Amino acid sequence: MTQTMMKTDFRREPVYIAVLALLLIAGFFLPSWLRFLLQTALAGGLVALGVAIQMRAGLVNFGQGLYYCLGGYAVGLLSAKLGITDVFVLLASAVVVALLAGALLGLLLARYREIFYAMLSLAVSMILYGVLVKAAALGSTDGFNVPPVTYLGWLPEREIRADVVYTLAAVLVVVSCLVVARYLRSGAGMLCEAVAENEIRLEYLGASPKRIVFFVIVTAAGISGLGGGLLAISTGHVDPLMTNWTTSGGFVFVALLAGRGSTIAPVIGFFLLELVQTYALDIAPNAWQMILGAVMLAAILLLPGGLWSLIDRRGKA
Amino acid sequence: MTQTPILTTEGLEKRFGGVVAARDISVALHAGETVAVIGSNGAGKTTFVNMVTGYLKPSAGKISFRGRDITGMSPRDTARAGIRRSFQISQIFPELTALENAMIAEIAALETKGSLSSHAITDARMHAARGVLARFGLEKFADTRVATLPQGVKKQLDIAMAAVDDPAVILLDEPTSGVSVDEKISMMESVITPLMNGEGTVLFIEHDMDIVSRFASRTIAFYEGTILADGPTEEVLRNDEVRKYVIGGTAHA
Amino acid sequence: MLKFTAIMLDGLNYSAWLFLVAVGLTLIYGVMRILNIAHGAFYAIGAYVCASTLGLYYGAGLPEALAFLAMGLVALIAGVVLGLAVERGVLRFLYGKDEVLMVLVTYALFLILGDAVKLIWGVESYFVYQPYAYFGFVEIGGLPYQVYDLLMVVLAVVLGVALWFWLERSRMGRMTTAVVADREISAAMGINVKRIFATTFAIGTFFAVVGGAVTAPKIAVTPGIGVEVIILAFAVVVIGGLGSIPGAAIGAVFAGYARALSVHLAPEFELFAIYAVMAAVLAVRPHGLFAKVSGRKI
Which of A157, A165, B158, B177 has the fewest CB neighbours in a 10 Å radius? Predict the structure, then answer.
């Protein structure tokens, strides 16, 4: 009964288990460069998922890279500057830092919608960018390197380090997708949709759209922070580009294209974007953004009723 | 009527700039009453409902609910306190199914009780949401996207959502507007009957005197922002002034 | 005391600059309901076009004093051509679409134009300091100050007043104001909304281009200069209220002095200071100082 009712059905745990199995098996066969790309895309995919969650509530966040960056820098600072190397402590810190930032910003942003929400979140992420670029102690535009992590005291041999990180990333990302899927199909997820559709009705039912949006912001911040932490651990490096608006724009683009069907879709979408980007940057290093922009424009112009209608549901009551 | 009223307004007034939309509105509603509000357009009916449900802040006067002053409370807080409303233009979640709409109303009602953690969509809650639809004869639309439903059904759903969790007072703003003449009575029956079965107070704004006399035991007539008459429906509808200013006015409206 | 004078003068200069780059953004939003992220790219293009033109100009050994005329002319041409190309080429197909969608569209345009700049001008920096140095210094309260920076203030005031006159006094301008007030009624009254949109967009673009052009002599013109501009301009128009031209002026003064104060007292927090002012304003007026708040109807 439940399954037929929900327009978007996430009650498919086996799908997530299958995806995880596939990722883990693929880990053995993929050439290392591709697996590395996949791994970083998994990390970034979580941020795209964070953007997608907000889109459910009708909100477009143009600065989600903020939490990505905060998560990454939290891991980087703790390990490189304070010598904490345990991966679980580091990732937990990344999530906590992002959650706190999300809560703080949520207080400001939860009352805004539409372009105000989009632009204010963009602006805040660019402030962080501006601060980091000027922070010489943190390597300015170059960022800094993150030392290898340990796993409850175990430092894997150099040869298998990449395998271990990959496995960890795959497990955490798929589990996160599953958790988000559960969140979205819960009452909280339904309230998100309700915010996108008719806030007035919600208020007269006694619910608080502002509070719902606040929770969406915080949730999205948390998983994006995890993504940032995973990226820092995967690449052993963080830099301010993580919170640059072109990074955030990529997340928005992927979330828009991925649609509402599955929480895995943004992750896969982000992988494809990274793949295209890798080739595009090889062929035409100064035209990648142009290509991305042109594809975005084409998608919007040619599919006017398609993609956008997925989030533009406001005020049609 | 010796029992204490559940909702009272004393000397409510609303001005928009120099225009007085409502003046000296004093009403006492009792538990279990079904009250009709009549009056031509601009007589202050919707202004009254909007003030009671917190959409408009009164310029003067006081609103009390269960002995508590709720003047100037937000829509959300009045809803939480137990005053719910439906809308003249139905306010629903158009892209979702009727069942999802009812479900959201259920979850929102739970939220008002502060049970934040219990957001899971359990079978019990699903059942409750289906129960809401069934109560208003909407179960056949459970899986239909509500944007595609006819106007009357949308309004029924709007009312059904307001009625979730049996609010103490429910205010219906023109429940039959936009519904064809021959469907008005059956529509009212399908919404009023389940509402009257509860203990709650029902107040509805209505232009059709046939419906008023059929469904309301008490009627309040508005004219130019003030109350012209308030009493048993039969008396009010026979009142000369009401006949002259209100019924005469609406007959051609 | 010198520091105080410096803050006062720099604040004035920053305000003028912010007004130049922000007023086009708010004008376009007010009339067309498009928050044009590509505005930053227009600014960058203005800077590049100016740098290239002046490079050629000085290369040809033409009289230095007339370089400013060349700057103005080039900015005008570039602004109108660029504005009309974007409006006619892309935006007009999307009128009436959701505002957030338009942010995405103009973001895509920003990306495209940003790379176009790199393809045309390369990634090297351009320097054209001559106009900046041309006027020399003047001493104000014991502080030597660039005359060019003071002239920027004059330019901002002149252009701002011109814009105001156009809106208030000209037929076209008054029709534009009418469109802002109520586009449906305006269209019904026979006002040619399409023409007004095209004109407005060209004027708004012109302001961005001028902003870039007059800034070019003061900076190293490099890829990426447009990003900061859109972020700052957005803060300015939000402080003043999106779509309000007096708001842009007030917002520019707020942000300009916030920036001047922080540059002189706590330089690391430059961007932060402007946004702190914005956050403070939003805390009191959620949609800016001059915003018309439209109540939700039920």
Answer: A157
